[in-house]
Amino acid sequence: MRLVVHKSPDGRLRSDFYSAQDERAFALAEKTAHGVLVSEFSESGEVLDQVYKKSNMTLAEIAGFLKKVADGVQVEEVGKYRTVEVNAICEDCKTKSIKREMDVLDPATVTRIPIVPLFVCTQCGKKFYSIHPRYLKNLVLRNTELFDGDEEKFRQKDETAFMKEIQEYMIRVFASKKLARMKIIK
């Protein structure tokens, strides 16, 4: 099955929805200053996966990412980029105005991609982070060389406990930076 990918005038490529591990998801590829960011989102706007490639081939990168769910992609031009809709309410101003930080920036000017996806309330400016369990697992599995021998043994023995510990550590780090965890409404 070929999957339709919508190309906006700014060069972003956004796929139609597809099924990924019992969840409706879509992928988005964006050319940045030094590469291509491919992100996979749930229907609620949570980041399920994200890879950054030192490449300038946006179409090739999204096609490669989507090969796990499609036999190929079919590109259709659209008149305007459709931003990621985030189903969350700002805890400070109580509005549903949270946007992905990459959607309020020009991706071509972005030189550093944060490891953890960031979001911002467009009404009050409060910043949020989001770590879906699947995103965290993918991040850990792609970076096992960052963990010492004991940590890797712990992960292999009890992955659930290991992921919980990593998530708790990240919560403390982001709290110290005054970034709140975004709470998705399901």
Walk me through the structure.
The chain has helices at residues 58-66, 101-104, 133-142, 149-157, 159-176, and strands at 2-7, 13-15, 18-19, 24-31, 36-42, 47-53, 72-77, 98-100, 118-121, 127-129, 180-181. With 186 residues, it is of the alpha+beta class. Helix 4 packs across helix 5 (159-176). The longest helix is centred in the last third of the chain and has 18 residues, at 159-176. 26% of the residues are buried. The mean pLDDT is 94.
Helices, strands, pairings?
Blueprint: E1 2-7, E2 13-15, E3 18-19, E4 24-31, E5 36-42, E6 47-53, H1 58-66, E7 72-77, E8 98-100, H2 101-104, E9 118-121, E10 127-129, H3 133-142, H4 149-157, H5 159-176, E11 180-181
Parallel strand pairs: 1-7, 10-11
Antiparallel strand pairs: 1-2, 2-4, 3-4, 4-5, 5-6, 8-9, 9-10
Number of helices: 5
Shape: globular
The tally of strands reads 11
The percent of residues in helical segments reads 25-40%
Q: From the helix content, strand content and strand pairing, which structural class follows?
A: alpha+beta
The termini sit apart by 29 Å
- Major sheet, described briefly? 7 strands, mixed
- What is the oligomeric state here? single chain
List low-confidence stretches. Answer: none
Give the SSE order as H and E letters: EEEEEEHEEHEEHHHE
Please compute the radius of gyration using only Cα atoms.
Answer: 17 Å
User: What fraction of residues sit in β-strands?
Assistant: 25-35%
Give the overall pLDDT as a whole number: 94
